[in-house]
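Task card 7
Instruction: Convert sequence to structure tokens.
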Amino acid sequence: MTQMLTDNVADRNAAITNALNELKRKDYKLMFRREATCLYCHELDDWIMPENFTVDDSYYFVEIENPDADRVLYAISLSQDVKGFLIDTCNVYMDNISHEMMEILKWNEMIVEE
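Output:
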């Protein structure tokens, strides 16, 4: 996991945009939404279970002024070379995520690093 410190929301958003643009150049183009037990992809109109995707890379954006605003950008691969991304909040709604999702998104590592 790559960690990037930012001073404020504008810096964090610029850093996320830069990382996202780099991922898109590497064909990570689909956008995913995290649900309690899986990911959802609007473009595919599909629910993707944890056993059907892998996290290739992740970027942890720490906002110094407001730790509650931290974000993680995930580079995600599905079968058949389908790639996308997920931008997620950090440690928000922890009670609304399955153990399998916590494991694959490596939330336990984020909690330890903080």
